[in-house]
Amino acid sequence: MVMSNPLQRRGAAVEPREIMQEGDAGVRITWADGEICHYTAPTLRRLCPCAQCVNEWTGERMLQPREISDALQIADLQIVGRYALNFKWNDGHETGIYSFRLLREMCDKKLIAEASQRRTE
Ligand SMILES: [Zn+2]
User: Which is higher by pLDDT, 102 or 56?
Assistant: First the structure.
């Protein structure tokens, strides 16, 4: 009997094969399952999951999207352990830890597509 292994598939979906910075404000992640996602700095910054940007008790987003400039850039990018990325933005913010799971979710839910489209218009 052949059974698909959902756990394994899930693993590949949240495991980056390649992380490439694209210019000053973009990141491309190629996932182990072949999916390629493009992220732009302002969008990622607006979705920042850190305790300053999201109330950790209520889950309410404290950060207003308009507070973030469309010209925001990535100052530095580091891999945290084996599970996340830490972005340092050129507005000085650097407390956001973006787990690969979260990054993949943003891509799957098209939370980042809107901004990419806006960018190419
Ligand atoms: Zn934050």
Answer: 102
- Which residues have CB less than 5 Å away from ligand 1 (the ion)? 48, 50, 52-53, 96
Query: Residue 9: what pLDDT?
Result: 53
Identify the structural domains of the chain with CATH numbers, from first to last.
6-120 (3.30.2020.30)
Q: 48 C-alpha to center of ligand 1: Å?
A: 5
List own/partner pairs for 77-86 with CB under 8 A and 24 or more apart: 77/19, 77/21, 77/27, 79/19, 85/19, 85/27
Report pLDDT for 115: 44
Q: How much distance in Å is there from the Cα of 72 to the middle of ligand 1?
A: 14
What's the confidence (pLDDT) of residue 106?
94
Report the separation in Å between the CA atom of 25 and the middle of ligand 1, taken as the mean of its atom positions: 17
DSSP state of 61: B
